[in-house]
Task: structure prediction
Amino acid sequence: MTFQSADLAALGWTPFFNAQTTFDELSALCPVRVMAVHRGQLAVLGDGVDASIPSHMPDAQSEEDYPTVGDWLLIDRETLRPIRLLERTSLFKRRAPGTGRKLQLIAANVDTLFIVSSCNQDFNLARIERYLVLAKEAGVQPVVVLTKSDLAPAPEDFAAEARRLQPGLLVETVNALEPDSLGPVRAWCGKGQTVALMGSSGVGKSTLINTLTGAAAATQSIRDDDAKGRHTTTGRALHRLHEGGWLIDTPGMRELQLTDASAGIDDVFEDIAGLAHTCRFSDCAHESEPGCAVQAAIDAGTLDAQRLGRWRKLVAEEAFNSQTLAQRRASDKAFGKMVRSTVQHKRKGDWK
Result:
C-alpha cells in the first residue's frame, strides 16, 4: 500500500518512510510528523491530524528512541497514542550540558543544512568547518550561505575562501534583505524539503529566515559599532517556507558540540587525513616526528598551518565529548590517584 497523499508529501513523506510501513499497520495507524517539542508533548501534523500528543514511546531503550523535531511517527488513529518511531534519514544530536552528559536530540530528517556566515568581520572559517563536520556526520547536504553581500566591496573573495575548504563545496552569496537575491538558496526549499540553519550570532540568520518564510521574526537593525543584528529565536519547531518546504532554527542547532563525529572530521579534513596515512609512523602526532607528511606539506606551502590547528582542536573536542561518563570518571579517578600518590611521596621525602 502506498500512503502518499498530497498532504503527507508536502510534509516530507517519501518512499523511504513509506517502505517502513505495512498495509495492516496503516489500516489502524496514521503517519504524522513532529512539528514541535514542548516539555513532554509533541505537536504533530499529518493527513487530517493536527494535535498535541505525549512524547512517551513504548519500548524505548535509549535517548535516540524518543522523537524530536522532524521525526515521523505512526500513531493510533483513534487514541492518537504514539506507537512507533520510523527510521530517520538524518539526525543532529549533541551531548547535553551538565555532568550527566546525556544525549540530546536536536532535529531529524533534515535534507539540507544552510551554514550561514557573513561577508564582514563575522566571517569565520573555523565555524564553517565545524558546521561542515556536523553536516557530513549527519548525512545532510551542506550549503554555505554568505549574507550581507551588499555591504562588502568584494563578496566573491569571501566565497572563494570558503570554497577552498573542500572541493565541490556549495557556496552562495546573498543579500538576505532582497528576496530576489535568494534564488539559488530557494532552490533547496521546495515542497517537502526540510532545511536547517547554523551560524553564529550577528550573521543575519533571522533576516534570512524572515525573507524565506515571509514572517516577521523579532529582528532589529544592525548596530553600527559591530555590524551585528539583534534577534530572538523561539523554541524548536518546523516553520513553513514560502516555496513549500520546512525550516528549523533553534538555539540547540547553533550550540552543537562535536560528538561521535570522527567520520565527519575525516571527510571535511580529507587533505589532512590523506597526508596522515602517509606519515612514517602510524601514531604520528604531526609535530616534529621524522617522516611526517603533514609537516612536510606545511613546509612546502601546500597545507595551511592554521587549518592543521583547527583540525587538532576539533579532533580533541570530538574525543572529549564522545568519551562516556564512565570512562571520564575512571580517567579522573586515575588522575586523582596519581596526584595523591605524588603528594604522599613528597611528604615522605622520597623525592628531593
